[in-house]
Design a protein that fits this description.
Layout (H helix, E strand, L loop, with lengths): L1 E5 L9 E5 L2 E5 L3 H15 L8 E10 L6 H8 L11 H12 L11 E10 L3 E8 L11 H8 L8 H5 L27 H7 L19
Parallel strand pairs: 4-5
Antiparallel strand pairs: 1-6, 2-3, 4-6
């Protein structure tokens, strides 16, 4: 499911303290805007059942600075140029997960985070992508290089139980992505030379056989 919230993304900030007549209280400065965001999320989510094992990804489209050299404007408006300034991406994630809690799922401790990134864009907005996953980690939840580094036969860092959990089809030579509910994901081929260059400590053989797992602990 995809939720799109128009407007400049909002980040979480520190709680504040106010005191009057000797009585103090701590409050959230974002409380009012959080209520507005919750209403927008609820309007788009109201016909969808809550997620049990949610995996959430975020794309934060940040406003383009008003004064830019002409030669760089095309780069900013491409929608691919990364926003590498404050606020931090985790401050955005925290606020929006708080707003989604009890609406999209019960308890943000259940959430698995997918890719989350800030990009410059002509139309500032927040894009939230939610997928239902399972209790056990699957290759679909991580990129091929991460999965290979964690569970690859040649990485030398996996236990026997981790080795037997790796599907036979999930190898650097022929990585097949299949969704649990449908087969819309196309086959994805992974270039073994790319893995060697990016993760040099992993020795990738031309054909990995997982039928005889390591007994390395």
């Amino acid at each position: 499911m995809k939720i799109i919230l128009d407007g400049e993304p909002v980040s979480q900030i520190r709680m504040k303290y106010s005191g009057r007549n000797g009585i103090g209280r701590i409050y959230d400065p974002r409380e009012k805007i959080k209520k507005e965001i919750k209403k927008k999320i609820e309007n788009q989510f109201k016909l969808h059942p809550k997620f049990i094992h949610p995996r959430v990804s975020f794309v934060f489209h940040m406003p383009i600075p008003k004064s830019l050299p002409k030669k760089t404007f095309s780069l900013y408006k491409s929608g691919l140029f990364k926003h590498e300034k404050k606020p931090d991406v985790d401050n955005f994630i925290k606020l929006y997960l708080d707003c989604m809690d009890t609406i999209c799922f019960d308890g943000d401790q259940k959430v698995t985070l997918g890719p989350s990134i800030k990009l410059y864009h002509l139309n500032p907005k927040t894009i939230i992508i939610i997928n239902e996953m399972q209790e056990l980690l699957s290759p679909l939840e991580v990129d091929p290089l991460t999965w290979e580094a964690l569970f690859g036969k040649e990485c030398g860092k996996c236990s026997f139980s981790e080795m037997v959990s790796l599907p036979d089809s999930y190898t650097p030579n022929d990585l097949i992505h299949l969704r649990s509910s449908d087969n819309l994901c196309p086959y994805q081929k992974v270039d073994t030379s790319l893995i060697k260059s990016v993760v040099p400590h992993i020795k990738v053989s031309e054909s990995l056989s997982l039928k005889q797992p390591h007994h390395q602990l």
